[in-house]
Amino acid sequence: MEFYQLEYLCAVAERGGYNQAARHLYRVPSAVKRGVALLEDDIGVPLLQRDGRKVRLTQEGEEFVCWARTAIESRTEVLDRIRKKGPPRGRVVMAAGQAILNKFLPRLKTFMHQHPQVEILILRRRGLEIGALIEQGEADFGYLPLDHCPATLHWHRCVELKMLLAVPKSHPLALKRKISLQDISRVPLILPDHQASSGQRIHHTFQEHGLEYRPLVETGDSRLLLSFVREGMGISILQEQQISKDTKKQVKIMDVTRLFGKQVEGIAWRKHGYLSDAARRLVAALAPDAHINFEGVK
Q1: For the segment 169-182, what is each residue's pLDDT rounded down to a tens digit?
Q2: What Cα–Cα distance (Å) separates residue 85 from each residue in 82, 100, 112, 212, 277?
């Protein structure tokens, strides 16, 4: 019995199939299927059975997976304690939206140079998706708004992002000193995905003021938002982030936080579960001003 086989089995159980597990593990389906089959041969009883197109656990499989999850976590914890005598190492998975990743990119780069033995996987996701990833153990920690944070997670206020308005320099609104919600509602809008936390904030703001607005494009890619603005197809509302010098030559960027409020993001991790030393160090490096206390976390 090998630990990779336990990881394969748990992934198949959580994902409901070999193909889904393989994508999650960055393996080919045949390797995952063979790993589970070898485990079943070693144990001597079937752990999985077909249910239509899906794969589900047998009664013995459910019992075994409960043990396997504990064994995987215990192994990580023991290895972590031993490794503390040397430089941090291991794999850390974090989940965050594009604005956060842009903001913390220099700190992330510094951490990677300082700790080359730590393998980092970054999942770019929307705020409403991140809590579930952490709950299910697919991410060690992530950044999300408090209203999208499940009760099973610790949430620590970490960063405030301004809301920005991007307007083509040739647009009439670029000449106004003070822009109102009514002004914005009258022109085509290039907006963040309606399911993204910033997209929801924008929608609720217009709704609260009884204003209809004119979305032309919705996308989760801020670079695409700005591309439409540069082409003069409308104006955009987006979270605070790094904007290239070339874009600033064509687009006027204005702070509209007074209209839409600040987007408050926090860092979250599981209340019950193990957070590795490498993950804690990465959290501390990305949010040094947050003074996060991991007391009580395993």
Answers
A1: 999 999 998 999 99
A2: 6, 32, 19, 60, 11
